[in-house]
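User: structure tokens for this one?
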Amino acid sequence: MKTGVWMAHRPVEGQCAFLPADKAIHYREGGETMTKAQEIYDEVNQQVAAGVEKRDAFKALAEAAGRPYDSIRGSYYSHKKKIEGGEGAKPSRTRRRETTPDDALADARGALERAVQAIDREVETAEERAAESAAEAKALKASAAERKKAITERLEALK
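Assistant:
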């Protein structure tokens, strides 16, 4: 059986078992357990604290582990996201097992309501642009005579 660097060394019913980097458990001295992603995160942060650029730390770890650069980088940022609280402010969308007629109607109603709101925003934006254009035209008209006079004087001076 041929195994790669990232494969477990134990067969599962005649096949290899694969463990994602954030799930693979590693045992450290003193019985402490941590994921591979956590190990990478800690090692990169130690190197950065020692003055190494983050990209250079990723590169060094990738070479030492015989893994691709992007694999190390991905493990680092997946663990960072995990300890910082996940996706951020935007909650994930809930999934439905099946769409009922009521769900379809609610979705259609929501889409139409959002379309009405979008039209209102477009009108408001167009009105703002029109007001800005009107103010610009008024300012240009008010300063036109003065600007023409200044240019005419310079033309006369060049003759």
